Amino acid sequence: MNILCAYNANIDSIYHIGGSELSNIITEFEVEDSAFSDTLQKKLAYPPGSISSKSDFLAGLLTCMREGSGAEWMIKDSAVFEWIKKTFIDGSFMRMGGNMGIMSNVLSELGASRVVPNVASLSKLQLSFFSNKAIYLPFEGKLYKSSELQKILPVNTNKPELIHFVFDFSKGDVVSFSGHEFTIPRENRFIATYDPLNFELHMDEEFRKYSLAHIVEIDGAIISGYHMLQENENDSSHNNSSNISPDYKEKLDSSLKQLQSWKNIRKDLYIHVEFGHFSSDDIALYAFSKLSTVVDRIGMNEDELAMLAGLNGMDPKPILEMDSVGIAGAAISLCKDSGLCRMLVHTRELVLSVSCVNNDDPEIIIEAMNFGASCAAAFACSGKLADRNTLLEIASKIPESEFGKKETAKMAQNIEDKWQCSTVCGIHNSYQVAIVPTRICDEPVSTVGLGDTISAAIFLRELELSS
């Protein structure tokens, strides 16, 4: 299978921050600047929500540690980014970040023939985190394997490294600063993100040219990153002029034109979009409504589905409780209202698909969902990607979710026209529904990227079985 991937690949830099280390950093700033303590206290009382100074960064980190909460703030000042990088990068663990970056590696490791990702900021460091099996990148009119390009790519100091700094902290650790002290109530993380290009849905020009020239050779495209769009501080939501177009709309519409240009050449190109967690309700609603008219399927987890359902007047509670009938009902309702034909909902306990095309082969999606659930469970238990045979061997020893099996049986009782399938499928509210339980690893090594793993694996297996 030949697959295009866009938009967001970045570098995750994971750093475990201790209470005493953070306390020492704050003390150093207080020695340098007598007003620093007052500035920090004001920002703790009224968190800025983004990072334009060192005190902004510390306020975000302290707030999360004090509350045991998680948050992600955007770094808006390059000088602060350089300070964070200089201070913490050496002690961090770096890996591939971004939904698309993770999904492209999954596709490569699981046996896709050629995976061509869009890389907003191509660098030797970013390349080092791509799979060496089937990742190919266009550069100066030619296509290179990631490992080959890493050797010949010139160093470009004008291209920024797109780094998401993930600061993990532990429950019970004590933080002391400016005469204050608190104990962290639970483990969590604060993410400081410097990613000016992926926030713009930037498409690399080399990728753009390659995709149009070779779209007839492509079997499918898997897209993510729309959740990174931000509201422009000067857009129409902040003033009375209705003629000013919000910046995120222009960026999303530009992306949709690109996807449509592929469809215009290759009408049967299968495009799956992984939705993501949006920071703005308005952007989420706009993105879902616009994407639904262009792409073939949208995938999401129960939190993302509940958010969309709530914004559309539905009760999100059954979805968050992973009630299969509630999930199916919300997915079908959203599809009908938006014109979307297919939706894939992946949760910890079950995976559910709805489709407006009654002649879609349900056994293909069932096998693909089982394959994806197995790959994700094996990845959770092992903490690393491997070839599909290895992953499936690991997964065969991981039991199916008991909760998921009960919800699968519950869905069977509510389907109006139940078909004979290897699991549960049939027609429900005029849509074809299929559902499978996941496999649950009791002691996961990694939970980061499980949603991306299951979606990419399902997508690949569907392409294979449908070809």
Automatic annotation (TrEMBL):
Q: Which UniProt keywords apply?
A: Cytoplasm, Glycolysis, Kinase, Magnesium, Metal-binding, Transferase
Enumerate the Gene Ontology biological process terms: glycolytic process
**GO terms of molecular function:** ADP-specific glucokinase activity; metal ion binding
The record's SUPFAM superfamilies line, in alphabetical order, gives: Ribokinase-like (SSF53613)
Q: What is its EC number?
A: 2.7.1.147
Q: What is the enzyme's main class?
A: transferase
Q: Which domain of life is it from?
A: Archaea
* Protein name per Swiss-Prot or TrEMBL: ADP-dependent glucokinase
Q: Which source organism does the UniProt entry give? A: Methanolobus vulcani
